[in-house]
Amino acid sequence: MHMDIFNDDAFSVVSLTKAIEDTPFVPGRVGQLGIFSEEGVSTTSISIEKVGSTVSLVPAASRGSSGRPMGNDKRQMIPFTATHLPQRASILADEVQNLRAFGSETEVETAQRLMNRKLAKMRRDLDTTIEYQRIGAIKGSILDSDGTTELLNLHTAFGTSVTSHNLVLGTAGTPVRNKVIEARRKMEAALGGLTYSGARVLCSASFFDALVGHAKVEAAFDRYMNGEFLREDQRGGFYFAGVFWEEYRGQVGATKFIADGEAWMVPEGVPDLFVTNYAPADYMETVNTLGQAYYAKQEPKDFNKGIDVETQSNPIHICTRPAVPVKLLAA
Fold first, then answer.
1. Residue 27's pLDDT is what?
2. Exposure string over 68-99, b if 16+ CB within 10 A, otherwise e
3. Using CB atoms within 10 A of its CB, is residue 56 exposed (0-12), middle (13-18) or buried (19+)?
4. How many CB atoms neighbour CB 326 within 10 A?
């Protein structure tokens, strides 16, 4: 077995990038829902144009008189820079040495399987990070992997603040349905003239339990399908007050993607409300090309003792109206 096999076209940046893209994808819930539109860009930063238009009543006037002058909208360009997410792994010469080879073609295929195992693990890490950052975009604050360092605050960028609403689920007599409608009104106010097709709430486990176990919610479903709702596990989701509620599972170590006692309401069917752009990798081969979600590349170690493999993603996750998602509280 020899290290020259890694000079085969199967290990070029194009082939490795295709390999990491073809690795079976187990996405997070936000990725499954497809609420973020995805597009590659050829630069490492983008700008969002904010138009500060207002709506006001037009006063009546006599026919033939001059109309009220309308002021020009103020325009503001808000820049956003891609987050660089690189990671590396190694394939040592000893790992390749003990692979059984039956000819050059089989040799390459066997080494590819070893490489793909490395890529699969790296892909899962990138998927998890992208999901974490998308949840951050919904919240309006994208954090680094430590869970505390802020990479981007969308509310600061757009001059907005978090829209929050307490459902008061800790009180048995709370009219939960009315509280939900109040939350939807806040979301609709932030949407302005934009229409939406539905509302979905991603709940932490404790919030979901408080909702399903609330007396008013239980009463609403008491006679539905002979009480089957109250006997089944509803974590997969159900409709209540015109909103779809589901338990969101997302946690790495001690970092919970949605904090205990919280949930986030988002509208569905709003074009370009949630956007993910991918910038190109920092390789000579990818300069000024349209960015892809994932990249992979390999190079030999010193003295040809192995191969270093790098994967990376360069996403920009944005909620273009960060006041629209509603932070719901259970207490």
1. 46
2. eeeeeeeeeeeebebbebeeebebebeebeee
3. exposed
4. 24
Contact 243, 199 (CB under 8 A): yes
The β-bridge relationship of strands 306-313 and 85-92 is antiparallel
222: its two tokens: 């008491």
pLDDT digits over 209-249, tens only?
999 999 999 998 887 666 777 778 888 899 999 999 999 99
Site of tokens 């991918």: 278
- At residue 298's C-alpha, the angle toward residues 310 and 3, to 5°, is 140
Does pLDDT of 91 surpass 90? no
Segments of 182-242 assigned E as strands: 198-203, 238-240
Percent of the chain predicted with pLDDT > 90: 63
* 263, two tokens: 């949930």
- Residue 165 or 15, more confident: 165
pTM: 0.85
Give the other-Cβ count within 10 Å of 299's Cβ.
10
